[in-house]
Design a protein that fits this description.
With 146 residues, the chain is mainly alpha-helical.
């Protein structure tokens, strides 16, 4: 992780991208280290949001491929877990992708959104907003935004 911090904004982008995939990784640690290191708060928010969003959209596209064997083998997302979200996706619509920033279930939401063929533009916009809110909330909770 220190290697990513040493890379500055590029390291933050990589950390945020990885955190949005099924790789068990916390972008908040790198994000916080960047802020403590004196990097610009808003640039960090935009870089982290971009990386996290692109990671989430990668999960969406993998889900969209529809190869459940690949999803289970490489992403470690079980079919049963995705089917749990199917009812929520039908109830709340494609905008449910907003919640893909949530730890633990966010990756499943992103993959399920692709697998169940949710509208690309709705998923992209709602996921982007959710990821942005995530980092703003993190800054607020840690006292960097008043």
């Amino acid at each position: 992780m220190p290697e990513l911090v040493d890379l500055g904004y590029i390291g933050l982008f990589i950390a945020s991208f990885l955190a949005a995939t099924v790789v068990p990784f916390s972008s908040e640690v790198v994000f916080t280290a960047m802020l403590l290191g004196g990097l610009d708060e808003w640039k960090c928010v935009f870089v982290a949001t971009a990386g996290n969003w692109l990671g989430g959209m990668t999960c969406y596209y993998i889900g969209r491929l529809g190869k459940i064997e690949w999803i289970e083998k490489y992403l470690h997302v079980k079919r049963e877990k995705m089917e749990q979200f199917m009812n929520k996706l039908h109830k709340y619509g494609d905008w449910f992708a907003f919640f893909s920033f949530l730890p633990g279930v966010g990756d499943v939401i992103a993959v399920a959104s692709g697998y169940f063929r949710c509208k690309l533009w709705v998923v992209a916009v709602s996921m982007l907003v959710g990821k942005f809110v995530r980092y703003i909330l993190w800054m607020y909770l840690n006292g960097w935004v008043i």
